[in-house]
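The instructor's notes for this session suggest beginning with a concrete chain rather than abstract definitions. Hand out the sequence below and ask the class to guess, before any prediction is shown, which regions might be ordered.
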Amino acid sequence: MPTETVTTYCRICLANCGLEVDVDTAANRVLEIRPDRENPYTWRDFCKKGKTAHQVATHPQRITTPMRRVGDRYVPATYAEAIADIAARLNAIIDSGGPDAVASYHGNPMGFSFATTTFWTGLLDAIGTGNRFWVGSLDQNNAHVVAEELYGSELVALVPDIDRCDCFLLVGMDPAQSKFNWLENNPGGWNRVLARSRAGADLIVVDPRRSESAAKAKIHVAILPGQDWAFLLGGLKVVFERGWDRVPTGLKVTGVADVRALAAESDLDDLASRCGVARTQIEDVAERFATAKTAMCVSHTGVAHNEHGTLGEWLSQVLNLVTDRVDRPGGRRYERGYVDIAQVLKLFAPAATHRTRVRDNPTIVGFHAVSELADEITTPGPGQVRAAFLAFGNPVVSGPNGAALDAALADLELLVAVDLVQRESHRHADWLIPGTHWLEREELSPLYGGLQEQPYVQYAQRAIDPPPGVMEEWEFFTELALAMDRNLFGKPGVNRLVRASRAVARVTRRPQLAMNPEWVQRLLVMMGRRLKWSDIRARPHGWIYGEPEYGNLAGAVGHEDKQVRAAPQAFLDATRDALTSAPPRDEEHPLLLVNKRIREAMNSWLNESPGLFRAERSNVVEVHPDDAAAAGIEDGRRVRVSSRVGSIELEARITDGLRPGVVCIPHGWGSRIFDPGGDPAATRTFGANRNLLVDDVRLDRFSQTPALNSTAVRLDAVVPAAAASAQDAVPVA
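After discussion, reveal the predicted structure:
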């Protein structure tokens, strides 16, 4: 059996772990995936998602040819047939309703492919639509909004300087599961935090749950869900009153006096009551953080998943700024990468000005929030969405109020899904287009350079070939733009360039001369002026090409005056509104539902992989003993969890790891996988979808993220059918 070992990296999440993949080359089959110990950067991380990744490539229900809906079934078709039909129908819809009559949504699996996302943007620019929706609106928009307001760029991310930190204040995150990765990559990050803790660093975790991370912390702050902003504002108040604030060393910062005034207006006892944390604990945490030699405050999805998520992210950044923890050793620093992101955005992605038709919301990093997609489909009027593309996304499960979105998708004139399998969100699709697995692609992702903890780069090699006849996504998007006779990237002459380059490639028998993603990748590397393409390709295990630097953020600030704006007026006003508003109370739904992450899953993606884990072990509702007793619930018994928009049933797990009044259900469950060939026996449902309990109206006003982490719910024991019948049979005296 001929075998080959391919060196590449995983593209399931931002960790980008280096891998060695053993391949049976004759059968085009992966034999084993293991960590690449020669990788100088990521070798410390490897998880079961990467180890079993090939099982998705060989999924029994994988789509391997375009499939067209005919009645209530799908029939195979050629790419030529699919492209011709989709192009004609899209042009007709655009001609009658305008470009915004076409909407798009993409999910995480596509976000980790530079080639796919680049040419996806090219297709959407060709169509001209502003109705672009994305998965980031569910977990990270608040970080982009804050980065734009403070630093003048939505894509500024500050990586943690873990190995020099003496005090970690981690808010709304569980790094034992996430490995300390979110919008940045920190190989072995959690283990390194624990090493610093053992060496004497303070480790403070703020979370309503006693998560695996909180259990390892020196201090666990069991906060009320949705009130992170109040806790952080309380910490700032203590810092200012006790004179622990410091002028930032390497940055020009305006607005600190306005933040100081906001903190002075607030009452610490009121803030403590709002967040459910004792005043003395807020004071203790503030002192530990402010007086430590080095420190960092980091907030992640637990903060983002609330209606005040942007305020929480803002105040965490301000806490770092006013204690001089930004772009300093042991704090959070700016990694400039090997591509000038500001220059790239100026040339290729000018600021979007589009606003949603129904709720009049702006885009964030060029995309709208999935919470608004159903409204844009169902609300009549000019610009109503009548066609949609779903690319490697499952918004019916990942987003709020999925029942409403599912009904809206069923009403479209055209729905096209591009993915490996037919998921819950694709069940009304008119066309199913095959996707490729990341093991079947090779590429460089230049824009991720600034999200690495060190100056690092790696080119991803292809391990196996796609199924015979399957196009890579960028090719499909290009062909569709050509068939529609609408210029790729919305630029005149691009389609002519594509056709001319293909002609040259045919004549010279050099396929690489036809326009392809490598053209863009090479151009971005050249524009960055830090690395050479040949040097990147010469290091298959990855390359740490420099040492971490401090002080680069000042040059990356996008405001004209090059000053960080610590006190955006809109944030000040919103915080004052929050201070004068009573926290919401729902007597009918007295408990607050929070979220948690499962290491082996990636939202609703990978839950169906047989080699990962079993749904019945993970898809449960965690309940505090006091709340279980009040609802008459027993451990292991089935319960109904209800909110104002929906209800689900699943097993209860009683634990004292939650504060009373809080219940927890992990996200990502509840999707079905369908067999497009029509075998109903192959259709399976994986757990219950907790997002059916979350409405799509109660949103963070700035990020448009739903309250996935603070939804009001109630619990009721589910009476087994046999027991219910017996109760009905009891005569009434």
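Then share the key points. The radius of gyration is 26 Å. The chain has three domains: 67-138+342-544, 161-335, 584-729.
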